[in-house]
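Data deposition worksheet. Section B asks for the primary sequence of the deposited chain exactly as it was used as input, without tags or linkers unless they were present during the calculation. Section C holds the resulting structure in C-alpha cell form. Section D is free text for depositor observations; keep each observation to a single sentence. Incomplete worksheets are returned to the depositor.
Section A, Depositor: J.P.
Section B:
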Amino acid sequence: MEKKWHILTPDPEAVKKICIELNCSPVTASILVNRGITSKTVASEFINPSFEGMRPPFIMADMDKAVERIYAAVSGKEKILIFGDYDVDGITATTILYSFFQYIGADVYYYIPHRMDEGYGLQPFHILNDAAPDGINLIITADCGSGSHEAVEAALDAGIDVIITDHHNISDDIPKAIAVINPKRKDCSAGLAHLAGVGVAFYLLIGLRQHFREKGFWKHLDEPNLKEVCDLVSLGTVADVVPLINENRLMTIAGLEVLNRRGRPGISALMNVSGVKKEGLNSIDIAFKLAPRINAAGRMSHAKKAVELLLAKEREQAMDAAINLQRLNTDRQAMERSVLDDIFKKIENSRILDRRSIVMMNEDWHEGILGIAASRLADRYYRPVVLISSKGDTGKGSGRSIPGFDLYEGIGACAEYIESFGGHSMAAGIKIKTSDFNRFKEKFETVVNGMTRPESFVPKIIIDYEINFNEISDQLLDELERLQPFGASNRESLFLAKDVKVASSGIVGKKHRRMMLRQETGRAVRAIHFNIDPESDLPDYFERIAFKLHWNRWNGRKEAQIVVEEV
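Section C:
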C-alpha cells in the first residue's frame, strides 16, 4: 500500500526557545514543539509530571454523591458488588476497587460477565438472577454501565442502589443511578475525558480516601498509598489505547515504576512467562506482552481468571494463573490466524476492497477475537472494519477504525439496523439481527463515504525530524527516553535519514535483518529491520529510511539502535 511521507516542520523560533530553556538538543526540542509543547513550564510538566498537578476528584460530576453513598454502605456493613468489564481496562478497574474495599474491611464481591454467554455490561438478568438473590445492597460498575438503563431500573425495583464508573461515550439520557461518574458526560466539566475506565475508578479511590479521612476513618487503619495500585492503572490505561497525556501520562509513569519493582506476584509471574526483559518494562511491553495475555482470559475463557491472577498473594498460585493465561493467549493467536486467513481468502476472491469499508459476518468466527482481527484488517487495508459472528438470529461483533473516521458516530448513524452498540471513535462493539446485516452493511458504507474523502484512505508516515547519523549521541538517546511512555497521542518519534548505505547485514530469527548503517561520512549505527522477506534481494542502499531510535539494552550494556519502520 502506497503511503504518504509527511515531515513535520515545527516553528524554528519555538524550537530554539525550548532548546535554550531546557538545555536540550534541537532534535528533542523539535519533537516537543511537534507535540504542541512550546513553553518551559509545559515541557517540565511533561517530562517530570507530579501528582500535585492532578485535577482533584470532586470536580467530576456525581463524585460527592458516590463517596457519601459508599461511606454509608461501608459503615452500615452493606453488601457491595463490583461489576466490571471483561477487557484489561475493566479487569484492572475491578481489581483496584475490589482490593480497596477488601482492605477497609467492607463486605465486597466482584462479578465480571462471560463475554460470549452474557455479553457486555450490566443487564437486568444480572440483577434478577444474581444481585437480588445474593442480598446485594450496592453495585459499583467498573468500565461499564453508561448505557445500562434497564439494569439500573431493575436494581432500583429490587432495592439495590447503583453507582456507575465508566468512560465510554454516554448520551444525554443517563441511567437513573445514585451516581454516574463518567467524564464524558456533557454536564461534567472536569476536563478528564481522556481517562480510561481504570482511571475513573482510580479517581473514585482518591475521592473515597479523602472523604474517609474527613470522617476520621483512618484513625485505626493506615491510609492506603494509592500510588501502589498505579501498576494496574497503567496496565488498563495503556491497553485501552486512551491518550497518554496529562493524568494518564502521570499515572502510567508511576505505574511503570511500581511494575518494575515486580512487587505484585501476579504481574511478576506474567512478566516472566511473557519474556519481559529484566532491564525494565515499558508501555510497549504492556501493549504487546502483558495486555494480550490478560485479555486472552475474557476472549477465550472467562475474565475472572485474569482478576484471580492480579489478586494472587502467593507466587506459586500466581505462576499457575500466568501459565494458564499464556496457554489461552497461544490458543487466541492460533484462532486469530485462522480467522484472518479465512478473511484474506475472501478478500482476494472478491471486490471487497472496491469499497471504503470492510463489513463481514460469519457463523464460524469466534466472537472473542474479532476485535483483534478487525484491528489487523484496519491496519493492513486502512479502512474502517466491522466483523460479526452470527449465532442463529443474532450477530455480535467488533469494529475498528482509522484516524479521521469516528466509528462510534458512524455506527450510530446506522442505528435503525442495530440492536445495540457502544464504544468510542476508534473501537466499538455491536449487536445486530442477522436479517439486518446486509442493510447495515450498505448503510455503513454510505455513511463512511459521506464522512470521508479519498485522501482519508492513504496512510501517513509522520516524520518528526530529518536527522544525520552524526547527530545521534548519548545525550539525545537519554533525552528521547525521557519522552516515554509512548502510546496514543504521544507516539514514539519517527526520524528520516537519506542516502543510507548498508555496511554489513545478516538475518536473525529467520525474518529480521540486522545491519550496520552509515551515511557518506560519520558514524555507523547498528540497526534492525523486522519482518522482512529474507528470500528477496536485500538492498545495500536506501534512498531514505524512516526509523525509531533508542537504547538497546542487554546484559547491563547499552548501545544506540535504529529500528527501521519504512524504506
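Section D:
The chain has three domains: 4-48+461-566, 57-227, 350-457.
Residues 4-48+461-566 form a domain with the OB fold (Dihydrolipoamide Acetyltransferase, E2P) fold (CATH 2.40.50.460).
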